[in-house]
Structures are given as structure tokens and as C-alpha cells.
Write a structure and sequence with these properties.
The protein is an alpha+beta fold. 35% of the residues lie in helices and 27% in strands. The two termini are 15 Å apart.
């Protein structure tokens, strides 16, 4: 059964950060972690982005996201929801 990974993404961001977020999503797809990323409003400040991945890829995908956030200084824009990491 596929596992769901959820990201909280700030809505109001500058264009440079928006490009970094789009590159993250594109890389998740191109690396084969998922085929589609679902986007929903969480509240007035954040989007909730979620995607399903195979159980074998779950930890690797989570670590990739965390590394990407750190390496691209997106700590205040994207967060991996803790319920994902188990």
C-alpha cells in the first residue's frame, strides 16, 4: 500500500522561492517518488501538498525533501508534516 507524504507550503512567497518550490515538486516526480502532487488549501496562510509513494521509497523521499528544504533555505516556507515521518 502506498504511503502519503504531506508538506505544508506557505502561500505568500517571493518569485525566487516559488521557483525553488516548483523545482522540488518537479524533482519529486522526475526521481519517480510520485506521479502527481495534490494541492489543497490548508488555511489562509498555507497550502497542503501531498503525494503518495511506495513504502520502499517513503523514507528516501522524506530525506530528499528535508535535504532540499535545508539546502535551498526553504525552512520558513516548506515543512514536512511530522505525521509523515514514522
Amino acid at each position: 500500500m502506498d504511503k502519503t507524504i504531506k508538506l505544508r507550503v506557505k502561500k505568500e512567497i517571493d518569485s525566487k522561492s516559488e521557483l525553488k518550490v516548483l523545482k522540488l515538486k518537479g524533482t519529486l516526480i522526475s526521481k519517480g517518488y510520485t506521479e502527481i502532487i495534490h494541492i489543497a488549501d490548508e488555511n489562509t496562510e498555507y497550502y497542503l501538498n501531498s503525494f503518495s509513494t511506495s513504502p520502499e521509497n517513503k523514507k528516501e523521499a522524506e530525506y530528499f525533501v528535508l535535504d532540499y528544504i535545508t539546502n535551498h533555505n526553504l525552512d520558513e516556507i516548506i515543512s514536512l508534516l511530522q505525521e509523515s515521518i514514522k
